[in-house]
Write a structure and sequence with these properties.
The chain has about 600 residues and is of the alpha/beta class. About 60% of the residues lie in helices and about 10% in strands. It is built from 21 helices and 9 strands. The protein has helices spanning about 10-25, 60-70, 85-95, 100-120, 125-130, 145-155, 185-210, 220-235, 240-245, 250-255, 260-275, 275-290, 325-330, 340-365, 370-405, 415-425, 440-450, 465-480, 495-525, 530-540, 560-590; strands at about 50-55, 75-80, 130-135, 165-170, 170-175, 305-310, 335, 455-460, 485-490. Strand 1 (about 50-55), helix 2 (about 60-70) and strand 2 (about 75-80) form a beta-alpha-beta unit. The longest helix has about 35 residues, at about 370-405. The structure holds iron/sulfur cluster. Iron/sulfur cluster (SF4) binds next to helix 18. Iron/sulfur cluster binds near residues 101, 143 and 464.
């Protein structure tokens, strides 16, 4: 080995640079750091001709969001639910070693652009007249790579220059292409909030009602109609404008006071979107429509709670082996997860991460113990943000539950994030970020210890880092809660039959659990099922989906809860008739 003498630090630096450059050259790497490729802006002038594409949620969420886009003056289309062909395209054009949702969603976009071309739209027009709107993140899992993956696959598939607009989970809408074309204003933001909450509530109702429908296919038909009604209101209602509503004398005054006018306008819009008669009356109309579906809640069905990775537990297609439809075919009642839980999780995490950051700031600022002013300033800064996020969390819950109330009160409430974090704490650190973090463990424990379900099915994509981590932890959870029926299923583009057969086996146990629970409940009433059914046949309100059956703690099954309630009603009626019979002769004697 030849020893080289280095005379100065500068010479050392130069030699290091030269060596680094040589190694990069030999490895075929670019001489500089990665630069984000330049992307054309989506401008306001393009709004009338550019179509915004998006997808990846359920058809209810997507239809409602599309209505808001269109109502705000955008052209908008949804890319269809990803299928196996999309997955194959994603693999063909994407990087190796990605997680399953990346392949499905990226391939799905490429597949859709190819379809546009097959319809006779030239490639240049596809590049110029379409943009894709999707969620982004800074990680720490592969979610942080989605944006780059979209660009990489699009380039490989021949769509270099196709624009991708990002909605960041931490920063809101990122102007990744410097766009003023997609603008967040009050009407658009509140419209999206309504669309998201409505989508969640409708989705939950759909899965609660369909397993018990008397007339096969009625639920899907009525829900299609209901979503169309909601879409019409989201798309077509006139936005609130203070200058149109204010009396003449006030309008004259407001026209000179810009700040006051804008403030009142914003408050008026918030009121109109969330509490306006048109909106609330439409919810009641939809509720009445859904209430026409006939249900038979004496059918015994195991309740299967779906958890897992965000996309895998939301999509309703090949991306999770069409798992929801499969479970329903096998006789289960599916308990889906609302997207609102994810937003609540992000707020909760933001709050406590912020609190922890205070200690770091305190340390860095080296505030002396007597410097009360600096200390108070720091406390105020953090308390303000903590309070701000707490208010956001409260409003989020309030608006979500408001939609639930107006739509019949049957939908499951949002679980408190603190409760989930506390339940997961013995197994999973709540500050471990990525994917669903501690949520998978927290939900598993929550639904089991509260006896709300018969089985928990975690859908986790192939190659998902955070899910693999929480899977490792779940074996400890199962050891502690012996009665738990928990099944993790890794979803990928292949192996559907294998996955279904594993689910079938676990479902067999869950069915036995639900049946046992039902029989105990029925026995405790001292009545025969035929008598309960006969009573239900005489009382049509008991065959309506929004008839309220009070929840009894410790019982999960819908049928078990129902027979106990009907039995109570039968007993009450009997007591009433007995009392009446005693009173009639007494009156007769007096006469
Ligand atoms: S949570 Fe898992 S599946 Fe989802 S983006 Fe991250 S690594 Fe991929």
């Amino acid at each position: 080995m030849q020893l080289v003498s280095i005379q100065s630090p500068e010479e050392l630096k130069q030699r290091l640079e030269a060596e680094r450059a040589r190694l990069r050259r030999e490895a075929g790497l670019a001489p500089e750091h990665f630069q984000k490729p330049f992307e054309r802006a989506f401008t306001a002038e393009e709004r009338k001709k550019v179509t915004i594409l998006f997808g990846g949620l359920t058809w209810k969420h997507e239809d409602l969001m599309k209505a808001v886009f269109r109502g705000s003056g955008y052209r908008c289309e949804m890319v269809p639910t990803p299928n196996v062909a999309a997955f194959q395209i994603g693999k063909e054009y994407g990087n190796n070693g990605q997680c399953n949702p990346t392949y499905f969603t990226v391939g799905n976009l490429v597949q859709y652009l190819q379809w546009l071309e097959s319809q006779g739209i030239p490639r240049q027009e596809v590049l110029d007249n379409y943009v894709f709107f999707t969620a982004g993140s800074c990680g720490p899992c592969r979610f942080g790579m989605y944006e780059a993956e979209y660009r990489f696959a699009l380039k490989n598939a021949g769509y270099d220059g196709f624009r991708v607009l990002l909605f960041h989970d931490s920063d809101g809408l990122k102007a990744s292409c410097g766009e003023p074309g997609l603008r967040f204003n009050v009407d658009f933001g509140l419209g999206m909030l309504n669309a998201l909450h409505l989508g969640d509530v409708i989705q939950d109702l759909n899965y609660q009602i369909r397993p018990f429908e008397v007339n096969r296919g009625e639920t899907d038909k009525v829900f299609r109609e209901a979503v169309d009604i909601l879409c019409t209101i989201l798309r077509e209602r006139r936005p609130f404008e203070i200058m149109e509503r204010a009396p003449k004398w006030a309008a004259g005054y407001l026209s000179k006071k810009k700040t006051l006018r804008n403030t009142l306008n914003t408050l008026g819009k918030i009121r109109e979107h969330l509490f306006g008669d048109v909106y609330v009356n439409t919810l009641h109309q939809v509720k009445d429509l859904l209430d026409t579906i006939q249900v038979d809640r004496t059918r015994v069905k195991p309740i299967v709670k779906i958890t897992g990775e965000f996309w895998a537990q939301t999509t309703e297609g090949d991306g999770n082996f069409n798992m929801f439809a499969f479970l329903e075919r096998e006789g289960a009642q599916v308990l889906v997860e609302p997207i609102a839980t994810w937003a609540a999780y992000l707020m909760y995490q933001g709050k406590y991460n912020h609190e922890r950051k205070k200690a770091v700031d305190e340390h860095q600022m080296e505030i002396a113990w007597w410097d009360l002013k600096s200390r108070a300033k720091l406390e105020l800064k953090y308390a303000g943000k903590f309070l701000g996020i707490s208010v956001g969390e409260t409003l989020w819950r309030y608006f979500y539950h408001r939609v639930i109330r107006h739509l019949g009160g049957l939908t499951h409430s949002l679980v408190y994030q603190k409760e989930l974090a506390d339940l997961a704490a013995p197994f999973y650190n709540k500050f471990t970020r990525g994917g669903e973090g501690h949520l998978e463990v927290g939900k598993n424990v929550y639904y089991t210890v509260n006896n709300l379900v018969h089985m928990v099915l975690a859908l986790k994509p192939f190659g998902c880092m955070p899910s693999s981590q929480s899977d490792g932890v779940q074996s400890g959870v199962i050891n502690k809660y012996k009665d738990m029926i928990f099944l993790p299923i890794e979803t990928s583009g292949e192996g559907e039959v294998n996955a279904h057969s594993r689910v079938q086996m676990a479902l067999g146990e869950a069915k036995a659990k639900a049946r046992g629970e039902f029989e105990t409940a029925l026995k405790s009433t001292g009545k025969r099922l035929e008598d309960i059914k006969a009573y239900v046949a005489e009382h049509p309100e008991l065959r309506r989906p929004f008839y309220h059956v009070p929840h009894r703690p410790g019982i999960a099954g819908t049928a078990a809860q129902f027979v106990l309630h009907v039995s109570d009603r039968m007993d009450k009626d009997t007591r009433f008739w007995r009392r009446s019979r005693v009173e009639v002769p007494a009156v007769a004697v007096e006469n």
